[in-house]
Amino acid sequence: MGQQLIAKLVPLLEKVNWPTNPAATEQGRQSYLVGLEKVDAYNGDPNQLTAALKTFVTGGSRPFAYAGAAYTLIAAAEEKDGQYDPEGLDVAMEWLEKAQDLEPDVLEINMLEALVYVHNGRLEDARVVLDYLHDLSPSDYYLYRIEVAYWQAVGDLEQTVAWFDQAASAATTVPQRLAMRGSMADFYFRQKMWPEAQAAYQEALHFDNSNPLLWHKLALIHWQLEDIEEAEKCNQQTLRLKDFPAARQLEETIKKKKSEGGVWGKLFGS
After folding, report:
1. For residue 78, what are the CA distances in angstroms to 31, 101, 117, 201?
2. Residue-level pLDDT at 48
3. Cα separations (Å) of 216 from 46, 68, 114, 126?
4. Which pLDDT value is given to residue 1?
5. Please, are residues 31 and 98 in contact by the beta-carbon 8 Å criterion?
6. Helix, coil or strand: residue 106
7. What's the half-sphere exposure (Cβ side, CA atoms, 13 Å) at 85?
8. Does residue 187 surpass a pLDDT of 60?
9. Is 248 a residue whose pLDDT tops 80?
10. Residue 226 Rama label (left phi>0; alpha psi -120 to 50; beta)
């Protein structure tokens, strides 16, 4: 999506009736935090991002609303391969700078600067911002999440896992816990650390048992672990919740595997 989604969002943002209050109010902050959680739940449906934008605006605080627009654009800029559209990140930075011009000293806003730096490869700049913000707030869930992104970009597995654990411990809401466990599980999945990914997805399902994507990914892990029966059970649960091509493809693959197993079973008398 990335570049295409950014192209659709930019004109939309120009039409938004932004709040007139130039101050970072507590109401604006609360709406901003709720909006961040909505963006974190984004799974490819653009409507999730527009719903988050509405939440940012309802807070009535222009700097927090602008920062929310920046966070939304950062999420939208991610391509299918995990890379980030550079132009999308540039637009996100423009909206962030609008927020910073109004309120230059708000941690929840300034932390997004480090996130943009991480995704566009300016890791030294990201490290400077993160260290500065940690001095202001030694314990912060979102800072910990950005540390995860930073160490992933650096390529340090041990530090990535350590910051995942810290972020999970600092999560205070169910959406935050779900986002952390889901992100951790996805990370393990990409690293092909199947047992760790399995445990993380199962924990994520504890918070969101009706999420078909979590069930689908758990089915894929059981397949990788050659536990065909569990893969089939998880895939059946996926299809009960949502019918989509990847799950149907796995269903056919499992059927083929079981059919082959049946033939070999007869050959060898088992």
Report:
1. 24, 26, 14, 22
2. 92
3. 21, 30, 33, 34
4. 66
5. no
6. coil
7. 19
8. yes
9. yes
10. left
Given a cut of 50, whether residue 35 has pLDDT beyond it is yes
Q: Minimal CA–CA distance to 204: which of 232, 231, 235, 171?
A: 171
Amino acid at 122: R
Cα–Cα distance, 142 to 175 (Å, whole number): 13
Residue in this structure with the two tokens 């391969």, named with its chain if needed: 81
Ramachandran region, residue 82 (left: φ > 0; alpha: ψ -120 to 50; beta: rest):
left
- Residue 85's alpha-carbon distances to 3, 4, 79, 150, in angstroms, are 6, 10, 7, 17
- At 262, the pLDDT band (50, 70, 90 cuts) reads low
The number of helix segments (H) and strand segments (E) in the chain equals: 14, 0
What pTM did the predictor assign?
Answer: 0.82
Residue 267: is its pLDDT beyond 50?
Answer: no
| Helix pair angle (174-190, 212-224), 10° resolution | 30
Q: How far apart are CA 21 and CA 16, in angstroms?
A: 15
What is the predicted pLDDT for the residue at 154? 95
- Joined together, the tokens standing for residue 269 give 């008398």
* Residue 24: C-alpha distances to residues 57, 69, 134, 225 (Å): 12, 15, 20, 50
